[in-house]
Amino acid sequence: MEPRFNLLDSPTAAKASKRFYSASLALHESSLPRNLQELVSLRASQLNGCGWCVDIHTQEADALGETPQRLGLVAVWRHSTVFTEAERAALAFAEEATVLDGGKGVSDATWEGVRKHFDDDQLGTLVCVIGMINASNRMSLAVNMMGGTYERGMFDRLG
């Protein structure tokens, strides 16, 4: 399969992509640990089947010091021992906010779990990270972006 379309070839989509990238930089500056942002983005991308975004967030998490073991276990985090209670709460939240289960959204129990571990700013960041990765997944899947083509730093040209 080949990509169908390069969004950056469209002047309007290129402008929107640059702004989208700038918004992600603001999230990276928050107090929510960057590696957790990458793990959550990786999990949502796995659920959505977006190879392009799985590639991005695996590489970015690796660059932040995540181990191959933890990266490999993100898909089965419930059945592993390598994630903290706070990380597990964030991954559960990411799953429920990604797979909306017929409009039910996030359960009260999952919400309480993330509230227990994250302050208001971190929780707001987590909500935005999940919303943005889901939008990214959908855009990437619509134009058939392929995993294996991401090169670290390639988005720096957008800033």
Total number of beta strands: 0
Average pLDDT metric: 93
Order of helices and strands: HHHHHHH
User: Into how many domains do the coordinates divide?
Assistant: 1
Descriptive report:
The protein is an all-alpha fold and 159 residues long. It has a single domain, classed as Up-down Bundle (AhpD-like), CATH 1.20.1290. Helix content is 62%, strand content 0%. α2 runs antiparallel to α3, α2 packs parallel to α5 and α5 crosses α6. The longest helix has 23 residues. It is globular. It starts with 10 loop residues before the first helix and ends in a 17-residue tail after the last helix.
Concise description?
The chain has 159 residues and is mainly α. It has a single domain (33-145), classed as Up-down Bundle (AhpD-like). 62% of the residues lie in helices and 0% in strands.
List keywords for this structure.
single chain, AhpD-like, 7 helices
Structural topology:
Blueprint: H1 11-28, H2 34-48, H3 51-63, H4 68-73, H5 85-98, H6 108-117, H7 120-142
Protein name: Alkylhydroperoxidase AhpD family core domain-containing protein
Keywords: Oxidoreductase, Peroxidase
InterPro entries: AhpD-like, AhpD_core, CMD-like
